[in-house]
Structure formats: C-alpha cells, structure tokens
Design goal:
Strand order of the largest sheet: 1-4
CATH architecture: 2-Layer Sandwich
Shape: extended
CATH class: Alpha Beta
Structural class: alpha+beta
Order of helices and strands: EHEEHEH
Number of domains: 1
CATH topology: Alpha-Beta Plaits
Number of helices: 3
Number of strands: 4
Distance between the termini: 61 Å
Length: 102
C-alpha cells in the first residue's frame, strides 16, 4: 500500500487564511485581557506575528491596538513581548469590569 503524502489531502483539510474567526465576535468569553503600555512598546511586532487570532492591530509597521472583539485572552502576546520591554500584561476581565462599573 502506497503511503499518502501532503498532496493527497482533501482540499477541506487546509486553512488558507489566518484568523478564522474574523466573522464572529469571540472575545466575550475571554478571562484575561491584554493591556498594552504604549510608552513601553517598541513596535517589534512579535505580538502581531504570534497572535493566533490576528487580534493585534498594526498600521504603518506599528502596533496601534488590540481587537478585543476577537482576542480570546490566551496571553501569547504578553509571553512573546521581549523581557526587557514587557509592554503587554494580562489582567483579569472581572477586575477590569469592576473598575469600569460593568
């Protein structure tokens, strides 16, 4: 029996575009929210590269925000932010909502 290779995969087995949840707001069940300190951010774009939800917003090569409608709070962005920079920290949603009065 011949071994199957990647060319033998069905077309339905491919993900051709990143951010497969762009049509659905999936951030409502987030437990932790990334908070970016603009003064500390050096725009290295590591958070943008590693974000599995394409929630890091970039314009002209600089981070301009985080799309909280699609961010699931995984914390990868904070983890890959360089240790000497630490421009992103994860904060509990409940704590932020209490401060916001929601």
């Amino acid at each position: 029996m011949k071994k199957k290779g990647w060319k033998d995969l069905a077309v339905g087995g491919r993900i051709d575009v990143a951010g497969n949840a762009c049509e659905y707001e999936t951030g409502s069940w987030r437990t932790f929210r990334p908070i970016r300190d603009e003064a500390k951010c050096n725009h290295c774009l590591r958070c943008w590269i590693y974000c599995p939800d394409s929630a890091i917003q970039v314009e002209d090569g600089k981070v301009v925000g985080i799309d909280l409608d699609h961010c699931k709070g995984c914390g990868i962005c904070a983890e890959v932010c360089p240790p000497k920079v630490q421009a992103i920290k994860m904060v509990q949603e409940a704590e932020l909502k209490a401060k916001e009065g929601k």
